[in-house]
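Milestone 3.1: sequence recovery, worked example.
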């Protein structure tokens, strides 16, 4: 717990300065290496995708509840749907931010690894390290590909949700609700595809985390 607190304080202060190299150097001084940071950031990205799945599902449910509203307080139903859309937008932003952080530490880790290989004098040890680097890089490339593919499914859905929210804001009545019902099936399909892609990304994250942690033992 004490180590985590120290790491968090160092991270907070150095990230404010925007100096990644100094950040990684300071973390290594407390025994927290780039590989450890990589594992933590992949875990954080995975968790952000799990949260996004929930938020997009909730947004769909509230939109469906609004469209199925037969009389009653339309404004209350609209506000709930709008809140869920905003939560989905925030979750999507968080996913992108976390993926960017994974890429940042990956670049630093692989560069360091490659540089250190050249310092190994024994050929057999150097070859073994090169093989492990290639395997890890290949696994990472598959991971980031699935993460970015899932991420790319979010903006079109958010655009559709925003269009509907703005249209209903200007025309909050039964006729307006009827006008956008035809788009709901497409939105439902898109969110189902998004959740499927995120599940693939989450599975890849788990495999990558397992491979990195196994290589430490």
């Amino acid at each position: 717990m004490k180590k985590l607190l120290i790491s968090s304080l160092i991270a907070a202060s150095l990230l404010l300065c925007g100096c990644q190299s100094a950040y990684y150097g300071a973390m290594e001084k407390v025994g927290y290496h780039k590989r450890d940071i990589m594992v933590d950031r992949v875990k954080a990205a995975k968790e952000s995708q799990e949260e996004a799945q929930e938020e997009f599902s909730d947004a769909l449910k509230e939109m469906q509840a609004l469209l199925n509203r037969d009389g009653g307080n339309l404004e209350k139903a609209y506000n709930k749907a709008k809140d869920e859309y905003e939560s989905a937008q925030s979750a999507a932003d968080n996913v992108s931010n976390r993926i960017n952080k994974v890429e940042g530490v990956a670049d630093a880790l692989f560069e360091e690894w490659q540089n250190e290989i050249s310092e190994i004098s024994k050929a057999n040890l150097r070859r073994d390290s090169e093989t492990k680097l290639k395997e890890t890089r290949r696994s990472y490339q598959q991971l980031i590909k699935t993460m970015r593919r899932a991420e790319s499914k979010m903006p079109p859905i958010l655009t559709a949700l925003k269009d509907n929210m703005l249209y209903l804001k200007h025309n909050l009545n039964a006729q307006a609700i009827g006008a956008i019902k035809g788009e709901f099936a497409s939105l439902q399909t898109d969110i189902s595809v998004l959740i499927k892609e995120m599940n693939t990304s989450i599975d890849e994250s788990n495999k990558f985390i397992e491979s990195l942690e196994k290589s430490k033992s």
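The mean pLDDT is 88. The helical segments are 2-17, 20-29, 34-67, 74-117, 123-152, 154-170, 174-216.
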